[in-house]
Amino acid sequence: MSFIDQLRQAQQQNQSLLCVGLDPEPSRFPAGVARNAEGIHDFCVAVAEATHDLACAFKPQIAYFAAHRAEGQLERLIARLRQIAPQVPVILDAKRGDIGSTAEQYAREAFERYGADAVTLSPFMGFDSVAPYLKYEGKGAFLLCRTSNPGGDDLQNQRLADVPGQPRLYEHLARLAQGPWNTNGQLGLVVGATYPAEIERVRALAPTLPLLIPGVGAQGGDALATVRAGWREAGPIVVNSSRAILYASGGADFATAARAAAQATRDQLNAARP
Ligand SMILES: O=C(O)c1cc(=O)[nH]c(=O)n1[C@@H]1O[C@H](COP(=O)(O)O)[C@@H](O)[C@H]1O
């Protein structure tokens, strides 16, 4: 099954556009959860168990694991997610980008070692840095397009003088991803919830691509404006929230609080659908 079909199925099953981001930060764990690699695993499992029927995807951010020597725990976590929520795809947030031969190793890491269903990529080294991921049939690749951070303006919002129409870099990228780069229908784009006008522009240029949209919750993005700008019948959106769910409570009730926060966000996103 293609990644986009898997995503649609999970969205249908759980009636959800919400991606639960797994960004485990040991210093924020409640008392009773070990502040080490095993605690990282256990914390994420508890959150996943509490939210599995509310999410259309899980997105572990690899740095939060690697920084604490918890790559083995990330492997085990993803295997465990398959048991907890077999229909819910896993997007490995790795933001990789490198020359082809190195990208082959990163692709192997994401899809063979971790068994992710999709990965986030930085496309700024060009198509040959993306192509190795597309050899994995059925897997998805989300290219950073208009990111949620203010510094995204520094490059992504600049105009390309040599391209007809002088599009902004993110607009040019959206066109490439919808068109010539999307050789097997595996590409999606990352657009920040903090910039709804740009989401709308990306959606106009890439009408059928899945959009991964982080930035609601801790970064203050507007859920209603996000869904209105990005959601189309032909083009799914996956709206990520990490910290607002993971740390909804700093106490022993963190999993229950995570569920309540996920439910509220899911309902808000659904209410905004036309
Ligand atoms: O690729 C991403 O997921 C991503 C892209 C982007 O433009 N902005 C962004 O915040 N992210 C990631 O999305 C998550 C957002 O986390 P919260 O702000 O806690 O919801 C983090 O894991 C970020 O690394």
UniProtKB/TrEMBL annotation:
Pathway: Pyrimidine metabolism; UMP biosynthesis via de novo pathway; UMP from orotate: step 2/2. PROSITE patterns: OMPDECASE. Residues 17-258 form the Orotidine 5'-phosphate decarboxylase domain. The active site is at K95 (proton donor). Its EC number is 4.1.1.23. The keyword RNA-binding does not apply. One of its GO terms (molecular function) is orotidine-5'-phosphate decarboxylase activity. It is an enzyme of class 4 (lyase). It comes from the Bacteria. Keywords: Decarboxylase, Lyase, Pyrimidine biosynthesis. The keyword Ubl conjugation does not apply. Belongs to the OMP decarboxylase family. Type 2 subfamily. PANTHER family: OROTIDINE 5'-PHOSPHATE DECARBOXYLASE (PTHR43375:SF1). HAMAP family: OMPdecase_type2. NCBIfam families: pyrF_sub2. This is Orotidine 5'-phosphate decarboxylase. It comes from Ottowia pentelensis. The gene is pyrF.
